[in-house]
Each structure stands twice: as structure tokens, then as C-alpha cells.
Amino acid sequence: MTGAKKELSSEQHTLYSEVIAENKRVVNKEKNLYEVTPKHKRYRVYIGRFFELKKGLHSVFNELREAKEHDYMEFMINSGGGFVHEGMQFYNIIQEKFNGRTVAYLDNRGYSMGALLFCMADKRVVYPYSDLMFHTYSHGSHGKGGEVKSHVKHTSAKLEQFFYDLIVKKGFLSEDEFKKMIIGQDYWMDAKELCKRGVATHVIVAGKELTAKQYLKQLKAEKRTKKEVKSKSKNKKR
């Protein structure tokens, strides 16, 4: 049972919130024990480009800051990236209101800041043709020489640490790969690679949600079956 649906849109993103009614699940019928999920809200944000030029994300984040203890957030990501500082705002709201209660779906692509947002979630779901790309940031500065030098040094240190915490500390790239990324290397990953590296925790295939481990086993079994079929076909021709 659901109700009280609400929609809020910024220039690039859309937030839907919905009230989920209390749910009881039987744990032990004889002992009359139930697991109760209290009434809560599901916040679902469709993520586009991080490029808010007019009103920004004020209405979206104001709504998210109303979240209570049992509410959770879902990200539906189809993003080519954009401004890092907007992505940092999502990072902050996760830390403040949804820590441990976030799910991200890589709905087609997540590049640059879109990839980092995907990495922020606790549960990270991909599809067979999902696509992700890590690369370094780009930024600029203007002003007097000393001001530019100081600003670039400060910003570079902050952004590199932010990227490092989301990518390397979680084991998605090695230290060596990260160093190469910072100086210009791009890392493109499909669903299989995302599962192997632990970036993806689950994959939705043919209406079923598999763990990353289950998906890799399935791919291995399919590959083995193809080899067997190919081998039988060759033997028939001989």
C-alpha cells in the first residue's frame, strides 16, 4: 500500500517521494513474532546532467532534508556528468539524512560525476548494458597570479581527496590506476567489469535481481555452453 505521492523537479533532475505504509512480515507464526517495517517515505531521484544554471537544487534538497529515520533514497542514474559541486551536495545529503539507506540504479550510463554518485550508494544495481566511466575532474580559475595558484592548489587537493575516498578506498580502482586517472586516464566499465570490481552489487536480468557474484557465474555458464555448442557443431561437420 502506498500513497501521498509528490513530484519536484529542478532543471536536470526529478524527485518523486511516496509514502510506504507499515508492513508486517511473519518471522515465527507459532510464537506470534513479526518483523515490522514502520511507515516511511521512499525518495526516488532521476539523475540527468549535473548542470543547474538557474534555480539550482534548492527545492529538491529542501524536500530531502525533511526525511525521517526510516526513509530511504533511490537514484535512477542516466548521466554524462557535470559540475562536481552539485554531486557533492548529494554526497552531503546522503551523509546527513540517508546514511546506510541508499540504492542507486545505473539506468544506462554513469560518466564522470554520474559514476561518482553511483559509487556513493550502499546498494548499486546495474543492467546488462549499463555503462560507467571514471575520469579526472576539470576546473579553472581566474584572478591575480597568486590567487590563481592558491585556488588551484586548494581545489585540486580537495577534489582529489573526494575522488579517492569514493573510488580507491572502496576498492574500485587501485592506487596505481587512480594515479593514472588523475593525469588523464579514462576507465570504461561494462556490467561484467563493474561486478568483478565490486562497483556493482546487483544486476537486474530478465526480471530477476541477481547478486554480482551470481551474475558472473551466470556469464561463465553461458560462455561454457556456447563453447560446447560450437564444439559440437565443429564435430558434426567433420
How would you describe what is shown here?
By secondary structure, the protein is of the alpha/beta class. The chain has a single domain, classed as 2-enoyl-CoA Hydratase, Chain A, domain 1 (Alpha-Beta Complex). Helix content is 39%, strand content 30%. It has 7 helices and 12 strands. The strands form 2 sheets. Strands 1, 2, 5, 6, 7, 8, 9, 10, 11 and 12 form a 10-stranded mixed sheet that branches. Helix 2 packs parallel to helix 3. The N and C termini lie far apart (62 Å). The mean pLDDT is 92.
- How many E-type strands? 12
Which value, in Å, is the CA radius of gyration?
22 Å
**Gross morphology:** flat
Count the DSSP helices: 7
What is the terminal-to-terminal distance?
62 Å
CATH homologous superfamily grouping = 2-enoyl-CoA Hydratase, Chain A, domain 1
Topology order in helix (H) and strand (E) letters? EEEEEHEHEHEEHHEHEEH
**CATH-defined architecture:** Alpha-Beta Complex
